[in-house]
Sequence to fold (346 residues):
Amino acid sequence: MSANPNWEPGTFFHLHEEDPVEEYENFKLGMWIFLATEVLLFGGIFAGLFIFKYNWPEVFRLGSQALDWKLGSVNTVILLCSSYTMAMAVDGAQRGKNKQLKLNLLLTLLFAFGFLVVKYFEWSSKFSYGYFPGSDLFFSVYFMSTGLHLLHVLIGMSFIGLVYFRARQERYHEENFGGVEVCGLYWHLVDLIWIFLFPLLYLLRH
Amino acid sequence: MGHDRKMGHVQSPKVYLGVLLGLFVLTVATVAVSYLDLGVLNDVVAIAVASCKATLVILFFMHGRFEDRITWAFIWYPLVLVGLLLGGVFLDYANRVTSMQDVMTPISAVETAGEAGDHKEEKADDGEEQKDESQDESNY
Fold:
């Protein structure tokens, strides 16, 4: 049926025969291409934010002052720390230090959970003051952009959870850490988006 | 890709710690700058500082500095497109003389003028219909 002598029944693409270095490079490139689409998605939201902001500067100034910039700063620091622990997790996987990998994955999950807790208090206080999506243009943009970011945090956390589960099975080592690195790339994007969201939503004092 | 057959690159953990400290410093800078009233420049500075932080994350945390040209192509192309989009928005507002409210007034004026025109057409239609009816009556 097949001219390929390596063909075995049940294997469409005999990936197991691919060069591991090439497989690793392609794995990462795939995630980078996906991240490019994420940047385009959030880029459109940022463009909308700026258009609304320049048309109704007063709405955005008052709305931004209703936010607690201190809680926003805390969440910025939390996400930066989680990015650091994620990078250290990848470092642990690269060096074959499974303990360092597992510890840093857990710390990253802990920081991510801290982000969720702060976000919960932030949003519930906004709701109690009667600010909802659609209250005004600023809060529509605010809940839309931070909500979409929150969705990315949740997806990232599930991804990290999966990698932790696999790390416990000792599946990662010096020759196989692509999964950890790709998970790290996704988590760093979550951090990158927040780096831009924070000053543009929380710090409009003028 | 493929020149050295090694999988990834290992950095000293000190690099990661240094980058984290740099990110903290830039976060403080973002908050501090927001107290200054720079007009439109506030946005430009906020984006510039955020871009510096993003560069640090991409180069060191995401190992961007070890990546090959094809990966960098996929890093640059969304950035260039978003830059074009935001640059267009900024240029548009920098060169605008009128505000949105001013633009809306002539549009409403045009709409009332249009409504007046519609009325005339309706009257003309009525006239034609009457003529048609009179022709019908004459036929009987």
Summary: Residues 120-125, 127-134, 136-140 of chain B have pLDDT under 50 and may be disordered. Chain B has two domains: 1-96, 102-140. Chain B touches chain A through 55 residues (CB under 8 Å). Residues 1-96 of chain B form one domain.
